[in-house]
Design goal:
alpha+beta, 6-stranded mixed β-sheet, 287 residues, 32% strand, 29% helix, 5 helices, single chain, 4-stranded antiparallel β-sheet
Length: 287
């Protein structure tokens, strides 16, 4: 990103301290959000999300696999992110790879409850076809097309929308397989199971610029940040995950206030996303 002059930095910081950002928003206001579903026909589900000038695509691919021996009653979910150099020149070579890995890890933590799986928005047990033998493996890919800040929230929204757009073929398992023998399966071409995405949280990132926190930071605002905390919150107001980036430490007493702010903003964000997803799917049905 182009470096900012001293005057531009003062303008950004001064506006945030007075609760009037350079694009006219208040500290706790998101840019306009637009959702389009079914953008990748080859995927089981997909969505494009635009938040201001930031644009991302998420796709979901489902493949039949075998549950791990440690978790025979759960399917597997993997999240990958690709930061296209077209989106931002600094994504060339190592810069893009490091950010992609950082975003994928944060999404795993915020949406899937990290390695423990606690607080997961997607129930891995719902992916099991035959316990210990057959399950669905979900491969979720996020692609950053245009970057103007707040990539994590945008990717989280796109994944939520893509999962609501995902249909998994119904599988009938033939009886009679015993022991370690893999049973025969019949995959339907006509019957599909939809995900219940009501429990999937949204991600609200609070970015600290000067003494204040803002939501949905632009690239210019992120260049002035000391730290950022991303909190994923579901429809019930429960915190499902929390991740931090940036060098500056955060006083533990501030965290509870930040969670309260994230819970308040998440309610508006979920309602906005839900209405956008419903409108996008209605448009897709008409097309």
């Amino acid at each position: 990103m182009v470096g900012l002059s001293v005057g531009e930095k003062h303008f950004i910081n001064g506006g945030i301290s007075q609760n009037l950002r350079s694009d006219g928003r208040k500290r706790e206001t998101y840019r306009p959000i637009f959702v389009e579903t079914g953008v990748i026909p080859q995927a089981n589900g997909s969505a494009r999300v635009r938040i201001g000038a930031t644009e991302v695509i998420a796709s979901v691919k489902a493949e039949l696999g075998k549950p791990s021996a440690l978790q025979p009653n759960k399917g597997k979910i993997a999240i990958f992110v690709d930061c296209s150099p077209v989106a931002e020149p600094t994504f060339e070579a190592r810069g893009g790879e490091e950010l992609s890995a950082e975003l994928a890890t944060a999404l795993q933590c915020c949406l899937l409850g990290g390695k423990s799986g606690s607080g997961a928005g997607i129930d891995p047990s719902s992916l099991v076809v035959a316990e210990g033998k057959i399950c669905w493996d979900l491969y979720i890919d996020g692609l950053v097309i245009c970057s103007d800040g707040n990539l994590l929230d945008a990717l989280g929204a796109a994944i939520k929308a893509a999962l609501s757009n995902t249909g998994i073929p119904k599988v009938n398992v033939a009886a009679g397989a015993s022991g370690d023998e893999q049973p025969d399966v019949d995959i339907s071409d006509e019957e599909f199971l939809q995900f219940d995405t009501s429990g999937i949280p949204v991600i609200v990132t609070l970015t600290k610029v000067g003494r204040h926190y803002i939501v949905d930071a632009t690239s210019e605002e992120e260049s002035q940040m000391s730290s950022a905390v991303s909190i994923s919150v579901n429809r019930k107001g429960h915190v499902c995950g929390l991740t931090k980036r940036g060098g500056a430490g955060i006083d533990p007493s501030v965290i509870s206030d930040m969670i309260s702010v994230a819970q308040h903003i998440s309610e508006q964000l979920i309602n906005k996303l839900d209405s956008e997803i419903s409108a996008a799917e209605a448009d897709e049905d008409e097309a």
